[in-house]
Amino acid sequence: MKLSFDPRLLTEIIGKGQYTQFRSILSEYIANAYDAEADRVDIIIPEDFTTDPIIITDNGKGLTDIEHFKFVGENIQLKKTYTPNYSRKMLGRKGIGRFAGFACAQKIIFESNNGEQYFKITFDREELLKQTKLENIDIPSVEKPSTENCGTKVTLDFLDSNYTIPNVQQIGRDIVIDFNFIDDFKIFVNNELCEPTLIKGEVIRIDEITTEFGHVSGTIIVSTSPSKKMKPGVIIRVKNRRVEGPSFFGIEEDYSSKVMNRMYGDINADGLEDIISSGREGFIQHDERYKQLIEWLKSKITIIIEKFEEDTTIHPEEIIYNLPRFKKKIQTFPTHLQTTAKNYIKNISHKLSRIKNDKDLLEIFGLLILRACENADFHSVLDELERTENMDISTLAKVLKNWSFGEIAYASSLVQNRLKILDRFSILINEKATPELQGVHSILESNTWILDDRYSLFTSNKGIRTILSKLSQKYEGKKGRKRPDLILKRDREDFVLIELKAPDIIISMVDVTQILEYQNELQKQFPEMRDCDLYVIGKDYDEISRKQYPEGNQQKIHLLSLNMISQRAEDRLRWLSINLKEEYDSIEEQMVEVDLLPESKIAVAE
């Protein structure tokens, strides 16, 4: 096949300077798949220290004609605005994005099938650079009939070892930010779906037509609390693709506000498409329309910040926190339950704005949340409150009424059963001949609450290779058969790694080294393990280990005795048992006041 390039675009096509960020390279191929009406894109990123290529596959309609490659640089946007079947806005402009891979790879191989024809075209960067003319260049290609499924596969081969490719988790986060698509377009990185983070809060909608920079639309959300997964700021998009941000565009240099820590915006400015830089890593900064858009955005952001700063002192959660009965009750809670209760109230605070002037009702609401946090099955009702879109008095009443007093009896019964399990556990750990993997291990595996109420089992006594397989990761090391005793998850998110020793073993630095070795092997393929908490549990620990890893050390290494975790669990349960009985009478009275008391009442187990 012979190919011609627009001479003005030589550096854009085969020069490396246009795509300094890996996300910009992937963005081009994802956009091409979108224009081809694909509903799925699969990206395979090779493991470190391998020579494997990057592969991007989509199930779009494929190339209809190899002629599409004959001249690169023509503005295809002038010919097509929307895709024929899905009526999607076309994202491609000049056909140069398909060569973005040259920033990180020596070769780009295109394979495409339209259901009737198969095409394969191979581009070699070094060969292109040897050309003295950019017209009628011979490019290796294959064209033959085919009845295979439609789709396109792009292979970026012979990767540049000096080009920085982020880890898979960061790539996934970048893709989510770069594209803001609807449900009919899914993107997977190493078989993991890239899912957007849901931000809850007050939504400010923007939809204006300006003479300076055209139609601008989108939303800015001020959340109830900062997101752990998203950077605050406003993203500027063109046709739903990120061009710039998240950023506050210099406001932060002379304007300090906590509101900015929980502000997340998406703004579409399709009228600025012609001033996007070649590598799509920003706008042409000196363009007057861009400058006007930034000033306009800064003005909008400033108005929103000032509005929310005025409201800060009257947020419903602040009123609840300072109500006398709520303050008195929450001070009796363990620290982690105080945090849980306040987080739930804060997360749904914006839904209570209609009743923020009714302190009596806010106090009843706050006290009911505290009772929920004492219940072993409190997640269901609190999650229901969080999911409710528009909170009002009737909705609140319905949720709380459905959560009957039967839950108190259930929680009380559960406490008594757990105390019996602790009695058996205490006897077992004080028997001299109890082996590690019998009795003690099985009880902790089935009763993770002994360690902490927030923990749930992830794996038990499984090899590193098996653990990583469960995390959709492939292990290539030589220690795949090594077996951590327990891996737990805390609050359904963070990992906790546990090395359990027999009840007669004194913990030493050898045991600490062992669990660190497990962590090191796991984090090579799964970086989230780098920051997990490590527990080494046995009869006691020697003086060297105690000095090296005191309680609260920065390495998150916890040395605990079996008797210590048993006593802590018992203290929590005794506290809960006493408070269940005390709270029953108080809650009953409060629910009568707002007509929430169910017809039948039951006694709380002593």
Structure notes:
This protein is an alpha/beta fold. The chain folds into four domains: 2-193, Heat Shock Protein 90 (2-Layer Sandwich), CATH 3.30.565.10; 201-311, Ribosomal Protein S5, domain 2 (2-Layer Sandwich); 316-403, no CATH class; 414-569, Trna Endonuclease, Chain: A, domain 1, CATH 3.40.1350.10. The protein is built from 18 helices and 23 strands. The strands form five sheets. An eight-stranded mixed sheet has the order 8-6-5-9-3-2-10-11. A five-stranded mixed sheet has the order 12-13-16-14-15, with no helix packed on it. Strand 10 (186-189) and strand 11 form a beta hairpin.
Set down the secondary structure blueprint:
Elements: E1 2-5, H1 10-14, H2 22-35, E2 40-44, E3 54-58, E4 71-72, E5 105-113, E6 117-124, H3 125-129, E7 137-138, E8 141-145, E9 151-159, H4 168-178, E10 186-189, E11 192-193, E12 201-210, E13 214-223, E14 233-238, E15 241-247, H5 251-254, E16 263-268, H6 288-311, H7 316-321, H8 324-330, H9 335-347, H10 359-374, H11 379-387, H12 393-402, H13 406-429, H14 440-446, E17 455-460, H15 464-470, E18 486-490, E19 494-500, E20 506-507, H16 509-525, E21 533-538, E22 540-541, H17 543-548, E23 557-561, H18 562-593
Parallel strand pairs: 1-4, 2-10, 14-16, 19-21, 20-22, 21-23
Antiparallel strand pairs: 1-7, 2-3, 3-9, 5-6, 5-9, 6-8, 10-11, 12-13, 13-16, 14-15, 17-18, 18-19
Helix pairs in contact: 2-4, 8-10, 9-10, 10-18, 13-18
